[in-house]
Design goal:
HTH_VMAP-M9, 6 helices, WD-40 repeat protein
């Protein structure tokens, strides 16, 4: 799993749990932490202060991810937690896959029915009207 996939998992989990998306500061912490950077290094690369990242955004982010993922998440274990969630979604068939499978089955059934109709169309016994004697009206 790369950072973009991890970010997508985190953002979707947070959105599902809290109804909000990750903000710029939270994403900066995730990206920096993904690269094993300290809060000080992350602060140097962004417009945020070390104190703000370390004492406000960071703790709130890890708590939010803990709630969203259903397991304790910290700056040092978040990648593993995100990867576990990511892998669990790979094991589940998606709605799109289920829809595509159903559509394929429906098309096969339709084709099979068409073939059966075409084959039976010529097998329908015909009765010759000339062989029947029709009653006459006097």
């Amino acid at each position: 799993m790369n950072f973009e996939q991890g970010l997508e998992v985190a953002d979707e989990a947070v959105f599902t749990k809290a109804g909000t998306r990750l903000n710029h500061a939270e994403i900066a912490i995730l990206q920096g932490s993904w690269q094993n950077k300290t809060y000080e290094e992350i602060a140097k690369e962004t417009s945020y202060s070390v104190t703000y990242l370390k004492q406000t955004v960071g703790p709130k982010l890890w708590k939010l991810l803990t709630e969203a993922l259903g397991e304790k998440v910290t700056k040092t274990n978040f990648q593993l937690a995100l990867e576990r969630r990511w892998r669990s979604t790979l094991d589940m068939p998606s709605v799109k896959t289920r829809f595509e499978n159903q559509l394929s089955e429906d098309r096969q059934s339709e084709q099979s029915l068409e073939n059966e109709v075409q084959q039976n169309q010529f097998a329908i016994p015909r009765t010759d009207c000339q062989d029947r004697s029709l009653p006459t009206v006097d």
